[in-house]
Amino acid sequence: MSRAYVIGVTGGIGSGKSTICDVFARRHGIAVIDADQVAREVVLPGSDGLAAIVRTFGAEVLDGEGRLDRARLRAIVFADPAKRSALEAITHPAIRQRMREHVEAVTSAYCLLGIPLLAEGGKNPLIDRVLVVDCPEAVQLARVKARDNLTDAEVTAIMATQASREARLRIADDVILNDGDPAALAGRVDDLHAMYLSLAAAHPR
CATH number for the 1-30+108-199 domain, one of 3.90.180.10, 3.40.50.300, 3.30.1490.100, 3.40.50.620? Predict the structure, then answer.
């Protein structure tokens, strides 16, 4: 099946991945596929994914409306690596398949595939090129504290579970420094868009 050229977009919490994707979409009409949204799609009521989770973990992972109670499931798998692996065995193939379906439906010259934990998860065969949204860790900390009303310690704990800034930069083909200058951000997106159009045109579809 033919598909669009795919730019994988990643970055640490608070780096501004969604902001960057929105700029590509708004300024250039580029399709954006959000892995977090896809992960929610594959466990909606009536889905094979949710049915498999209930078979594995029991009906107590559902809320009163038959939807996945994410907090309850997270509590179950958090302290048990075997249960976490069982969950990933259900969800990861479904997420990959749904992302592939979304990519195959793209009509723009290329698309962005936002994957927060790309550096942690290893190479994704759907992705042709990696764009890392980067910012200093102090900026990450301040943004997430303000956005989520968390303490320094809580944000630092979340950041500690993610790949380091250096590890993300090692997998980057391209980098956008998102440290607070909107004008520079737009110009950088425009430059990358021009390059991605050229790469997409040379990509067999």
Answer: 3.40.50.300
